[in-house]
Amino acid sequence: MIDHSRRGIFRRFSTKKTESPLTQQRLPWVKNEVDFVSQCTRCEKCITACEEQIIVKGDGGFPIVDFTKGECSFCEGCAQSCPENLFDLTVAPAFSHKISINESCLAKKSVECRSCSDMCETQAIRFQLVLGNVAQPQINLDVCNGCGGCVAACPTSAISMTLEEAK
Ligand code: SF4
Ligand code: SF4
Ligand code: SF4
Fold this sequence. Notes:
Alpha-Beta Plaits; two-stranded antiparallel ribbon; binds iron/sulfur cluster; three-stranded antiparallel beta sheet; alpha+beta
């Protein structure tokens, strides 16, 4: 019998580039999206194990990280608690999404704000002085670890994540 909830997720994960920016992304260290959707039993052990309580039930009941709830501390709780063979803690980086800042950003509207940068432990977001305007955010994706700390910190929800490439 066809499991419609899994089929829908397969369709989503088979898309090479997501059309719209998202603040919900797959769990860290997931080895393979297709295996994840076919083998995750939706037991919710990872949801319970997450010390930051940022994992929620997503489409079809599959767990997903909701970065509007906070940032990932990389505690490994999700991967360690999973009874299935879905995670590989040697995978680096843990997340493959890329962050972006859209036009809702206060600084882009010439309003002083550095909330995202203040939350970023890796200093992936820096503010560059601009003549005649407030300082503007610059993202260094090479340094960003995808923790999502900047997402919840932004007062205008201007930061989102895009999964560039599904495995
Ligand atoms: S690594 Fe820890 S904080 Fe991050 S999603 Fe997994 S359980 Fe939550
Ligand atoms: S612990 Fe593993 S099998 Fe259970 S819901 Fe989370 S990812 Fe799926
Ligand atoms: S997701 Fe990247 S830019 Fe945002 S706080 Fe984390 S490391 Fe910094």
